[in-house]
Amino acid sequence: MRALEARCLANMGRRADAETVLEELEETRLSEYVDAYYIALLFEALGRRDDAIEELDRAIYENSATLYMLDVDPKMDTLRSDRRFDKLRERLF
Question: How many domains does the chain divide into?
Answer without folding.
Answer: 1
